[in-house]
Amino acid sequence: MTVSRRVLLATPALLLARRGHAQARFAGLEVKLGAIVPSSGPFAEWGRTNTVALRMVEEQINAAGGVGGARLSIAIYDDAARPAQAANLVRKLADDDKVLAIAGPLTSSACEVAFPVANQARLVACSQASSKPGTAAANRPWAFRNTIDESVLMKAALPWFKANYNADSVVIIYDAKDANSVALGSRIMPDMLKENGIRLLNEGALATFNTGDIDVSAQVTALKALNPAGVVLAADYSQAVTVLREMRRQGFVKPVIGGTPLISSAILRAAPEIPVVSSATYYAGQQGDKVRRFTETLQPRLRATAGLPPTIEPSMYDAHMVEIVGMYTDAVLRAGITLKPEDLAADREKLRAHLATLSGYEGLSGPIHFAETGDAVKNFFVVVGQNGQWGEKLRGCSTHGSLTC
Amino acid sequence: MLLQQLVNGLTLGAVYTLVALGFSLVMGVLGVLNLAVAELFMLGGYVGLSLILADYPVAVAIAGAALVTAVLGVVVEKVAYQPLRNAPPIAPLLSTLGFSVIFQTAATNIWGSDPLLMPPDLLDARYRVGSVSVGQAQLLVMATAVVLVAALALLMRHTRFGYGLRAIAENRDVARLLGVPAPLVTSGAFALSGALAGVAGVQIGLHYSAITPYVGVEVGLKAIAVMVVGGTTNIWGVLLAGPLLGVLEVMTVALGGAAFRDMTVYGLMILTLLVRPQGLLGRAGGAQRV
Amino acid sequence: MISSYASGLLADTGIAFIAALSVHLVLAVGQLSLGNAAFMACGAYVASVLTVEHGVPVHAAIAAGAVVSGLLGVLVGFPALRLRGIYLAMATLGFGEMTRSFFLTLDATGGAAGYSGMQRLSLGAIWAWALPLLVLVLLAERSRLWLAMNAVRDDETAARLVGLDAVALKLGAFGVAAALAGVAGGLFAHWHIFIEPSAFALERSTEMVLAVVLGGSTVALGPLFGAAALVLAPEALRFIADWRLAAFGGLLIAILLVRPQGIIDRRLIQALKP
What we know:
The complex is a heterotrimer of chains A (405), B (290) and C (274).
Chain A: H1 3-9, H2 11-19, E1 30-37, H3 44-63, E2 71-78, H4 83-96, E3 102-103, H5 108-121, E4 125-127, E5 143-145, H6 150-165, E6 169-175, H7 179-195, E7 199-200, E8 207-209, H8 217-225, E9 230-234, H9 237-249, E10 256-257, H10 265-270, E11 276-280, H11 289-303, H12 316-334, H13 344-356, E12 362-363, E13 366-367, E14 369-370, E15 376-377, E16 379-386, E17 389-397
Parallel strand pairs in A: 1-2, 1-3, 3-4, 4-5, 6-7, 6-8, 6-9, 9-10, 10-11
Antiparallel strand pairs in A: 11-16, 12-13, 14-15, 16-17
Chain B: H1 2-30, H2 36-53, H3 58-81, H4 90-111, E1 116-117, E2 126-129, E3 132-135, H5 136-158, H6 160-170, H7 172-177, H8 182-208, E4 210-211, H9 215-230, H10 236-256, H11 261-275
Antiparallel strand pairs in B: 1-4, 2-3
Helix pairs in contact in B: 1-5, 1-8, 1-9, 1-10, 2-3, 2-4, 2-8, 2-9, 3-8, 5-6, 5-8, 6-8, 9-10, 9-11, 10-11
Chain C: H1 4-28, H2 36-54, H3 58-80, H4 85-105, E1 115-116, H5 123-140, H6 144-154, H7 156-161, H8 166-192, E2 194-195, H9 202-215, H10 221-236, H11 244-258, H12 266-272
Antiparallel strand pairs in C: 1-2
């Protein structure tokens, strides 16, 4: 048993091996964390891979001697992507399970309802996926999100999109039932297009569809008739697949740009000839020692899990989950937390203060800080999906004020 | 572009017609809204696409899907309908809803919640007529809708099975007195309804080339609207109402935005229920209103 | 002192119970509605706008939301008089979907992004609505009015022949039911302090019907039991993990088969009495 062997295991283990292992000051104690993931319902895939990722981290950290000697245990609950269940799970984790902090919930709808409860319970909740503008900011100081505001990402992606594809005119289509897509499609993008000197050809009549629609032929026919140089597609990947397939069917092969919810291997398979530009904080196939190790450890586990497709890849939200647990265990070691049951409220507050002024924490692709909005300041990548894989085109940081990567 | 949108609308209408047939058969004959039909449609799509992905020919995929969903249709009948035949109509409505939830979960657990994608080059040939372009899969969906409606209409009119169904629709007890094997014919109706939904599922999977476990709900609700507008006493009704609603929906989207789409579609359904409850082609007084 | 988790579930039960009462009322005159989430949405949005933007005290706002919902209910009830059974169910389903679309496009209340800014009510405040409403409905069930409503349900023609005003009874039931759903919506909005159109989708309407049919539609204790079962079952079934929702579906079918009249009926209450 050498330290170097453990270092190879994965990221959080690496962190702990460096900082925590030598000082087994928490021997005999337990670090209890909570996680809320949607393992049933329409986002089941995300919730289930999240669960596998969490169990992996838990196992790795404990195999490497725990968190400063304390055993890590993560209570994982399924909210079925239902806000009311997520809210009650925050209560359960806070009062019954007495966890130090919560990772999740995943969907913005669940966050909107669960974050206020976390605030009331004075317990940190950090979402792995929600990127609806302002959801964490409205529920400070206990709400955090290990995600970047879509408008920050788009600021970097859009100029590249314009320059690379000569996209001087575009059309917008978005999912009118999904709050995140509505914000991106109807509010963020029209202004940003103007700033970048890109003409919006369907201004005043933006094309929309609804979550669950299988037929978007009418919208695509109308967009195609405007003959734009590019398409802004604000939707979840599972909905975006429908649009991309319809574009392909109608021979409307134009470059597409959208937000982080597009990052999925399903997008790559939907229309390989249509380039899809998006931003990601992690994508399968990403290079870098740490991140490659993460992908290589998690992917076989995911593929060996019943109930997950055999071709599945780790998602961005799995990466975020692992980072969240990493930040929490890092806080245990560095924030003066005692792990004593009688200090629980104080420990939770110390963890919150530690996150709010987080520094020196290395995520999978660089340092992570949190802005006063509760959203992450971290590295991101502008990527293009084409011919079956993601290619990295640009690197950026969601710099906020004086906070940068 | 308007012509192209018309083609889009007619295709969508054919999709609705196909699913509405499954609903209409059981509703028209037994007065039961079998909500599980929507999920049988979804399962049919999955079974069909899985067979196609395993390199079986499309015809085998359609037959396989129809077989699976027909059997499941009978399971729904035996468990969720038969024991509740004499309960108020709300009981079988909710028990078939129970099956919907089970089928959805099963699909999520078997195939995952991510969209299952078809190979992109299957049935993707396109034909141009003037300014309008029509895809192979689109033609297949429209042709299937017409053929199935016609076949079902013939079946109802000219076979012993159809005669039995119509007799049961009028009065189950009298039908039995006339020698109609009511339990067998009822099971047949559920099986046929399941098979129709299954065939619809494969067709739609082929056309849209992607399917998710949640596709049944939205399409199912629209199909119910089509069934109501077309009327349940005349099989041809759905062939008229499907394209009508499809074109209405597509035109609303093309002209006014998707936001008003549900308002127009369900608005038309409610209007039909109020003004012409027997549906466009229905026979007045023919349908049971209780 | 109960844990906050238990109090969360109790609050959800109270809200679901009031919502279920609304279906209970329309069922009492033989009508089936699959669109009552629309009235809940109406109550939720009206009450929230009143408390957030006009500073109206929360209980007054909830009451106002209920009145608006009730009026909408009567308005919808008029055309609904023409329909019965499964056809009424389909029409109300369409109405529910239309209402959800309406709030989705209504920018004044945030559209798809939802609406927030409300203050959270206490668990006690929710049951301060739920308990009196339960008592009220239980008392109503012993009145001649309820007998008349059931007469309309059992045989409308006969009810008319003995001089009952079936139209007024049905309209009244629809209106009061809509108001009850409005109360549930107002409480929902001020318990979760965030509302969005998808919170009032078809699923919510079917949940209300399920609570009544599972719990028992002959006496108001049925919806109470059904609402509790609907809130607690998903929690109790957690150990089944991936098949949790399917288990719920199976349980639903099983209960319908074993007790088609619902779990709670008058006979059971009699039998349980010492």
